[in-house]
Amino acid sequence: MDEMVSIVIPAYNRAAKIADAVRSIQQQTYKNWEIIVADDGSSDNTLKVIEDMAKEDKRIRSVRHERNKGAQTARNLGIRAARGPWIAFLDSDDQWLPESLEMRLRLAQQEDVAVVHSLAYIVHKDKPMEIYHLPAWRGQIYKNVLSHEGPMFQSLLVRKEALEKIGYLDESVVAYQEWDTAIRLAKFYPFGFVAKPTFIYDYTSQDAISRNSIRSAKGYEYILKKHFGDIVRYAGLAAVAYHYNVIARWYYEGGDARQAQRHSRLSLFFQLINPVIYLRKLKSFIRKP
Predict the structure, then answer these.
(1) Per-residue pLDDT for 43 more than 80?
(2) What is the pLDDT of residue 27?
(3) Is the pLDDT confidence value at 5 over 70?
(4) Rounded to whole angstroms, how far apart are CA atoms 162 and 85?
(5) Which of 41, 78, 251, 267 has a CB 3.0–4.6 Å from the CB of 256, allowing a cystine?
(6) pLDDT for the residue numbered 119
(7) What is the rounded CA–CA span in Å between residue 211 and residue 217?
(8) Which among 120, 74, 114 is positioned nearest to 96, based on CA atoms?
(9) Closest Cα to residue 265, out of 281, 241, 239?
């Protein structure tokens, strides 16, 4: 278990937090790694923080966009610069637990899989840390990940060749970026799963993508439209109805009632034309005394 892992951290104006993320990697029990901070045109001291840490640890380096292009583009910049056969991801405001790399890489090698994910802890503002129950999917998960949102980037350990095979990350996705990535990887590769938390997800940040409801709705809708054919083919119309309902909820939360109602109607439409739902209702009716 001596293969190098290249850890990609996209960063935009994270001078106040990125050092903690880097230190959580330096505390890993598995030591054969490199950190690639992909600075996405930061206007604060993010790059200086990394350059100062790199002076003390030669495994740390940075690549940079002169202007802000988005997290997916930054991740791709880091992936292309990676020297190791394995790629892992960490967001600049999150942290890994000390055995994160060791547990995931051991499982990847034991099960001979190109992709591994895990559970997590989540931290809310003014609340104690708790387990964040991500789906415990393993093996051929393509139908699962088409049916429901899947692993998070912070838990993914992926063969670089697998990311090359899918053409790197889709830079047009504005939210749910790891879901799109997981769908595209699952089409070709079985997944491994570590049934323990391997990272801490910081949900206290005010500028996190996941806190922007309209952006979440648009990102989710983009992925639904992109993979619509395979969602219908492998997961069925019930999955389509579910996805439109999720989009509707995001629009409601973001205050866009018109779009929320539109997507609620789409969800209802796909429920009504789904023969499986009709059969379930018929069976339920027949069973009634």
Answers:
(1) yes
(2) 98
(3) yes
(4) 10
(5) 251
(6) 97
(7) 11
(8) 120
(9) 241
